[in-house]
Amino acid sequence: MSKILCIGEALIDMICTDKGKSLSDGNNFLKKAGGAPTNVAAAIAALGGSVELAAKVGVDPFGKHLIEVIQDFGVSTKWMLQDENYFTTFAFVSLMENGERDFYFNRGADGQLSLQEVEAINLDEFSIIHFGSATGFLPGPLQEAYQGLLQKALLKNIFISFDPNYRQLLFRNDTQNFVDQSWNFLSCSHFFKVSDEEALLITGAATLADAVTILFEKTPGVFAITLGKEGTMLGLNNKTITVPSIAVTPVDTTGAGDAFVGAVLYQLSDKSLEQIKALSENQWNQIVVNANKAGARTCEYMGAMEAFKHLTTDIFN
């Protein structure tokens, strides 16, 4: 099985356990390792895949905790760097009664991963690179590292996966910047996952049908649009297939999308780029069925990393 590289944020989620309360009203918080690409890497490793994480944390107890948690899953942390000048990034999370989330970011070391540092990564060791962090589009070293690694992956003809992970809080005053940078990745990704809201935002379409038309016109890859309880829309060969969701009573939806992506990439990691391009609609449909199962399993536990402990390929059966 070939190796996967995930790049982007590694952070601490501080989850407010006073459900239904705002962050300002909540008093009790639970510390959990997180960050979208960190979650994807952990999900891949939990399923038995070979994966490395390129990210930056602080030289503090929280950075140490993140590294230890990821290592326990079996993720290689060779490129999980520590910066003594910045604290580990925090995301304060308020969980509502329906399982949905609200965020407040206190950004630190994750944004300091530099182009010079990622250029030291030998991409010949990897068959898949996953870009999955909205913070990679914020100004700073990580943005340059993201763009540089994308260009290097294109030159080496490596399978590119992308998940924009839009967070309104981060881009409320500069949404167009997020959209423009997303198109840069969408236009060259072999696979990407977006939510229905992200599909509308990025394409500027009024309806999901119009958004799908634009995505088919402007992107070359296979895509998945998550529709919540309605399932997942799979787009390939100018056709869409809606794959039903798995019915669960959600405890916490944190990390469900990342588990979905991780499951997709795990299933592709034993194939060459040419073999992936040759996959049939039925084969892609089964990949998404399995990925939906991974996402559903994640919703049944509090915190993504706790949920990933229960991710195994047995759920695909």
Characterize the structure shown.
With 317 residues, the chain is α/β, with parallel strands linked by helices. The protein has a single domain, classed as Ribokinase (UDP-N-acetylmuramoyl-L-alanine:D-glutamate ligase), CATH 3.40.1190. Helix content is 38%, strand content 23%. It has helices at residues 36-46, 61-73, 115-118, 141-155, 168-171, 175-186, 196-203, 208-218, 256-268, 273-277, 281-298, 304-308; strands at residues 3-7, 11-16, 29-34, 50-58, 80-83, 90-95, 101-106, 126-131, 159-162, 191-195, 222-226, 232-236, 239-243. Strand 6 (90-95) and strand 7 form a beta hairpin.
Q: Regions with pLDDT < 50 over 5+ consecutive residues? A: none
Q: Biggest β-sheet: count, sense, barrel? A: 9 strands, mixed
Distance between the termini: 20 Å
What do we call the CATH homologous superfamily?
Answer: Ribokinase
How would you sum up the global shape? globular
Overall mean pLDDT: 93
**SS summary, helix count:** 12
CATH topology value: UDP-N-acetylmuramoyl-L-alanine:D-glutamate ligase
CATH class: Alpha Beta
Strand element count: 13
Name some characteristics of this structure.
UDP-N-acetylmuramoyl-L-alanine:D-glutamate ligase; 4-stranded mixed sheet; 317 residues; 38% helix; single chain
Describe what is shown at a glance.
This protein has 317 residues and is an alpha/beta fold. It is 38% helix and 23% strand.
Task: Draw up the topology in text.
Layout: E1 3-7, E2 11-16, E3 29-34, H1 36-46, E4 50-58, H2 61-73, E5 80-83, E6 90-95, E7 101-106, H3 115-118, E8 126-131, H4 141-155, E9 159-162, H5 168-171, H6 175-186, E10 191-195, H7 196-203, H8 208-218, E11 222-226, E12 232-236, E13 239-243, H9 256-268, H10 273-277, H11 281-298, H12 304-308
Parallel strand pairs: 1-4, 1-8, 2-6, 4-5, 8-9, 9-10, 10-11
Antiparallel strand pairs: 2-3, 6-7, 11-12, 12-13
